[in-house]
Amino acid sequence: MIISDVVMPGISGYDVFNQLQEDSFKKNIPFIFTTAFSEKRDQGIAKVMEIQNYLIKPYDEAEIINCIRKCLDII
């Protein structure tokens, strides 16, 4: 599982995600995005990229645990 911020120095979380999607061995790694961006535009980008696991900061412990469970299909 990868938990990545959207904004990072040198590369965006979206770019990391896209690179993983190009690798048949890595594309099924569960991926969670975290971001301080709560604008509809940013959420729209995630939707277009079919990103299901998108947490807006600040998030609480229950939110991250639920997202991890969802990613690992252990709800």
List keywords for this structure.
75 residues; alpha/beta; Rossmann fold; three-stranded parallel beta sheet; Sig_transdc_resp-reg_receiver
Describe this structure in words.
Residues 1-72 form the Response regulatory domain. It comes from Mucilaginibacter rubeus. This is Response regulator. Keywords: Phosphoprotein. The modification 4-aspartylphosphate is found at residue 5. By secondary structure, the chain is of the alpha/beta class. It has one domain: Rossmann fold, CATH 3.40.50.2300. 39% of the residues lie in helices and 16% in strands. The protein contains 3 helices and 3 strands. A 3-stranded parallel beta sheet has the order 1-2-3, with helices on one face. The longest helix has 11 residues, at 61-71. The chain starts with a strand and ends with a helix.
